[in-house]
Amino acid sequence: MAERGTYLDADTGGFGSGDWVIVGAPLEETACYGRGTSQGPAAIRSASECLEDYCPIADRSLKDLSLVDIGDIPVNVVPFPKNLEFIRNAITKIVGKRARPMLLGGEHTVTLPAFEAVFERHPDLCLIQFDAHADLRDDYEGDTFSHACVVKRIADLVGPARIFQVGIRSGTREEWGWMRRHQTIYPSRPQGIDKLMERVGERPVYVTVDLDVLDPSVLPGTGTPEPGGTSFQGLDQLLRKLGALDVVAADVVELSPPLDASGVSNVTASKIVRTMLLSL
Fold it and tell me: Would you say the pTM of this structure is higher than 0.90?
């Protein structure tokens, strides 16, 4: 992985078609409860150093992959809209080389510019969202680009028929009405994922994992924990099934290392990233 704090511009990164490109976006602007997502990418990288590169379930090693880490996009230093532009430009360069970005957040807002960049290359792109929260608000406290609005902004871009949501257990009455009306919700069980995959078909997919999809007993280090979530084994199994789809980009967001002094959340997040790299 790239040296922490060093960003290697994708113009000069040594990667190409089919490669996974890890890039961090430590953006933290609209977090509304627990803070610390700006430390997420560094914590995932640090925790990865204590994990084996080999996964016995997949019978694969990270050493088997064409994998490049280009560091963190410089954000949190300019006005918020400019940060989103920086993320969009970085992802555009990665997909322009036909590589696959693995974006490490940061708050969930980072998914919007990344999705927009991938959508430019794949106009039939679908979103699969693993999350505790619907993130379908038109605005949150007057902000239309809050982490609570990210999936609504994507739905505005591609339409609700391309939104597939798993693990949702929190939202407003309006959000639940929207999800039920458009039938975007799927159970976080293998049968639910099978149905989701059937509907996605051969279309390209962006997978976003908000770590609060996991139960807080499994991963307490996230800014908006929500009881009643999935187990690690359950999420791991569902993510592996998605390997049969045409996944062209992915992200893992909303890790807040200061909220879990044990460091277990960091390791759990890193292992989820490993599963996605090896299986998608």
Answer: yes
